[in-house]
Design a protein that fits this description.
The protein is an all-alpha fold. The protein has 18 helices and no strands. The longest helix has about 40 residues.
Length: about 425
């Protein structure tokens, strides 16, 4: 069987195709090691005291770990992607809503990642004396980068695993190397500056800091089932997911914060450049973004495959082209895009968790409900998204709790699930 037919986009992953702890751990670490988390870490580092930074990152990633770990348990137990799981709560055609939402957001993440890599590469080439500083040259780099990243996602979970086996150690090494220089060199000058940082008038509220920590990856975290469904057991799925989101994502925040304190730069590629490590900077950034981008375009392909019935390998190619073409615009509007994702995506996962554990008591039937649209789930998603738009507290958490409560309430007014 060819590798691109091993992704089971329209059904459950059989035990014969399940993978062990280390294979799944590198895939999930490759997913969570992303430059956007380092940018977010830089923002927290600039706006928090050392103690506030540590507490907000740990609190945010603890919540992420619980949320994504719960989705991982469901995915490993059923062997289903988030798109197949959503059929139980949203109905067969109702599942098109979460598939569309997750699909377009992950295409967007792919585009952002392509631009995040292409722009520093252009700057590096210009610094080296190459005549490629024009917008047209940047577009050429963007297109080449997008095609390369799409090619590995085309071949599915096997390609993602091998890429992550290479990328994860490299990212850890470069990140720790940079952090060591930032904090420990020059008689620990950077370390003393980091632990004694006082943001003053620019301080972030603790709830805002937690929101940034959660929001940096909760939209991607909702897609956890698309990858972790290949785990041999639910135990493997939960442990690898919690490690990836609690440890891996926390490291990304630390790398970003350390760079901000020492060099006033949140992006590890810029930090490495200032540390006279230009080639490692390009390599670390490229591998960092490539792993997450391939996961993003892979899960978007699964989403549109659920809607259209077209094999995932074709939807991946189409989405890769769309994401590449939109990359520069999305990068220019990154903050607004991230805020938008944090309102519309988390309620989807909350509804699926509530449906699985409360309405179905921890056991989904092999065949999802054939009802075209399950309106309680649609209404609950709309309510959760609306509340998340209200500027108070932690938006993503508010949306999830509201969606879960509304769905649980409305479930009393429909027939119980089939035994």
């Amino acid at each position: 069987m060819s590798s691109h037919n091993e992704d089971f986009e329209q059904g459950s992953v059989p035990q014969s195709s399940r993978r062990g702890f280390w294979s799944m751990l590198v895939v999930m670490l490759g997913f969570t090691f992303f430059s956007a988390s380092m940018f977010a870490g830089g923002k927290l580092g600039a706006g928090m005291t050392f103690q506030g930074f540590i507490l907000s990152v740990l609190a945010g990633n603890f919540i992420l770990g619980i949320y994504c770990g719960t989705l991982a348990f469901i995915a490993a137990k059923t062997g289903n992607s988030i798109h197949i799981l959503s059929r139980h709560a949203f109905g067969m055609k109702g599942s098109y809503l979460p598939s569309f939402l997750l699909g377009i957001t992950q295409v967007g993440w792919f585009g952002v990642g392509v631009a995040m890599f292409a722009i520093p590469v252009q700057k590096y080439l210009v610094d080296k004396g190459y005549n490629c500083g024009s917008r047209g040259s940047l577009w050429l780099i963007v297109i080449i980068t997008g095609l390369l990243m799409t090619s590995t996602a085309y071949f599915g979970i096997r390609s993602l695993t091998w890429l992550s086996f290479i990328a994860v150690p490299a990212i850890i090494i470069f990140g720790l190397w940079s952090t060591k220089i930032s904090l420990l060199d020059n008689n620990f000058a950077g370390w003393h500056k980091f632990i004694g940082h006082n943001p003053g008038a620019g301080a972030l509220a603790f709830t805002t800091a937690i929101a940034v920590s959660i929001g940096s990856f909760i939209s991607g975290g909702t897609c956890t089932p698309d990858f972790i469904r290949f785990s041999k057991t639910s135990k493997v799925a939960v442990i690898t997911t919690v490690i990836a989101f609690f440890l891996g994502n926390s490291l990304m925040f630390l790398f970003g914060a350390a760079g901000t304190m020492a060099y006033n730069q949140a992006d590890i590629s810029d930090v490495l450049a200032l540390q006279a490590l230009l080639l490692p900077a390009i390599l670390a950034l490229g591998l960092n973004i490539w792993t997450t981008n391939d996961n993003a375009i892979y899960t978007s392909g699964l989403g549109f495959s659920n809607i259209t019935g077209i094999p995932k390998r074709y939807t991946v190619l189409f989405n890769g082209i769309v994401g590449t073409l939109a990359g520069l615009w999305l990068n220019d509007n990154f903050v607004q895009y991230l805020s938008f994702l944090n309102t519309i995506i988390p309620p989807v996962g909350a509804i699926i968790i509530t449906d699985f554990f409360v309405r179905h008591h921890g056991n989904y039937p092999e065949t999802p409900n054939a009802t075209p649209v399950q309106w309680p789930a649609v209404i609950a998603w709309a309510a959760g998204s609306a509340v998340a738009f209200i500027p108070f507290g932690v938006a993503a958490l508010n949306g999830m709790l509201t969606a879960a409560a509304v769905y649980h309430f409305l479930s009393y007014f429909k027939a119980p699930p089939a035994k």
